[in-house]
Amino acid sequence: MYFCEIKILKQMKKVLLTTLVSFFALLAFGQERVNASLPVISDEISAFHSAKGWWYNFDTGQWKDRDNDIPAVDRFKKIEFRTMNYKNEDFIIVLISYDDGYWDYPSIHEGFHACVTVNYYVIKKDEFVEKIKKLNDSHSLISFHTVANDFYINRTIQPFNEAISSEINKNQNNDKEYTTLNLQQRNFKEKNIIQFLVYKHKCRIYDYNKPGKKYKKELVSERCTDAFNSKKREVYPTIDKWASHLGNEEIFDFFYFEADLDEFIKKFTLNNSIEL
Predict the structure, then answer these.
(1) Per residue in 135-182, pLDDT tens?
(2) pLDDT tens across 238-267, in order?
(3) Is residue 274 situated within a structural domain?
(4) Cβ-proximal residues to 147 (8 Å cutoff; 6+ apart), any chain
(5) Which of 15, 91, 116, 272 has fewest C-beta within 10 Å?
(6) 117: helix, strand or coil
(7) How much of the chain is in helix, strand and coil states, percent to nearest 5?
(8) CA-CA distance, 152 to 158, in Å (whole number)?
(9) How far, in Å, CA of 222 to CA of 207, rounded?
(10) Any residues with CB less than 8 A from the CB of 45 and at least 6 apart, and which?
(11) How many domains does the chain have?
């Protein structure tokens, strides 16, 4: 599990930075206190709550299951959807929450503090509406480009819309990094079953070319990592023998979440407001 207190410190640093910027802006403008517009975020418009986590135990040769949980891989409490308008543009926010917590004394498991961590992903509405239609396919990998993504917890002091505004503005001119929210699925309409995984794909572009120098080939590389929502560490093929199959249908030979297909489509199409 994440250590919630570390997350709180990170978010407090963000708040401090935002406060300092605002302070110096006020000094520059004297008594003119004009706040920038913030994103307008709706209440929950749709939420998906229930799935069975399945994984294959290679030691026993048996499939195991647990509600909303694939041990050592991923778990979730709720996948929630909201709409957002910011600078006259419409977005969909996907929020994935899970139970989290930390121990005051981890070695003896004493002094546990529970919290709920929420990872959020902001996607342009037009892109979300167009790509979610791939749920019609028997199997698909749906990648949503995010304009902002981060986390918050139930004890955070930073307003949610301020955090999103900060992320969007920071990422606007960033052409060296990008993050996608990936929904990988296969479905069996005759059985009304969907098997799926949701994970983050983050890439950074490294440009080693020096201005004014000519090279036989461009020295540019792209390094990408994947991470499931409830795990702080990234996925590495050297550690996770299934990692090379992520994004391919073979990953379902190792683990997946399974749910009612009609219910899944209803919630992921925002209560059937998007026609597939």
Answers:
(1) 999 999 999 999 999 988 875 556 778 889 988 988 887 878 899 999
(2) 778 888 899 999 999 999 999 999 999 999
(3) no
(4) 91, 122, 123, 124, 167, 168, 171
(5) 272
(6) strand
(7) 25, 45, 35
(8) 8
(9) 9
(10) 81, 82, 83, 270, 271
(11) 1
